[in-house]
Structure formats: structure tokens, C-alpha cells
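Researcher: We're teaching a course module on how sequence relates to structure. For the next exercise, students receive a sequence and then see the predicted structure as C-alpha cells, so they can try to spot secondary structure elements on their own. Here is the exercise chain.
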Amino acid sequence: MIAIATGRRLGRLPASAPPSQDVTAPRWGPAFLRLSAWPYRAEMAALTLLLFAILFYWRLLVVGDLDVLPTVFWFFWPDLAAFIPIGVAMRGAKSWPTWGPALYNVVHSFLPWAAVFGGWWIATGSLPWPLLAWAGHISLDRSVGYYLRHPGPA
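Model: And here is the predicted structure for the students to work with:
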């Protein structure tokens, strides 16, 4: 195995990192990692870098056809679509409205993004490059530890 700077070997977690409690352990082999484990977050960070490289290096600098304002809008879209309605509904309350987590999860999930991306592509016949920023937002959130929200109380 390859050693990393901490002296641990890849594939091993420190003894203090408990296995996932969300997924039942398989009948054979070790338990599954938690979603907050470094391999998952590293994957999301790599995806974020890839998406930003496609958008801002390849499409903007090399090809030269990226429309920057829509790209920036789609990057901020998940938070705008979730937090503006939630903030308006809260009006000084300390907790989110009951529908808040569902709204947050819809705009911070890859499934709705993929449906919009694919539908736009099919409807227009061209790739909606700025929509990759929405996926970049989701992967960036996941890489820094912001996951989907639980519908119950905090």
C-alpha cells in the first residue's frame, strides 16, 4: 500500500472514525464508511475541480464561448432557490419551516440537476454549459461537508 503524509496507509481510517450507521454492514468484509469520510469528500473535491476546469479553463479560455453571467447565476442558484424562500418564511424564527429541508434537498441534489441538464440538452440540442456550475456548487458543498438536510428537528 501507499503511505501518506500522516503515516497511515491508504484505505485505513484512524481508530476513532466509526463506520457508517446509515447503511447496514455487509455480511462479509468491513463496514461502509460514513459520508463524511475523506475518500467521499476527496471525490467531490476532484469533481468540483474538474467541473471548474471544464467551465473556466476549457470553455472560457480555450474555446471562448462560455457566458459568464449565467454560469455565475447557476453556481449560486441552489442557495438562492433554497435560502431566500426559507428566510422569508422564517421571519425571525429560530427553526426552518417544515418544507425547508425538502426544498434545500431538491436544489442541492444531483438528480434534479441531471434532469434539468438532460431536459435542456434534449430540448435545445446543445449542451447547457453554464448548468455545470450548478453541479459544481453541489460537489463543492459535499467536499466541504455540507450534505442534504434531515427533515426532522436539528
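Model: If you want an answer key for the exercise: Residues 39-143 form one domain. Confidence is low (pLDDT under 50) at residues 1-10.
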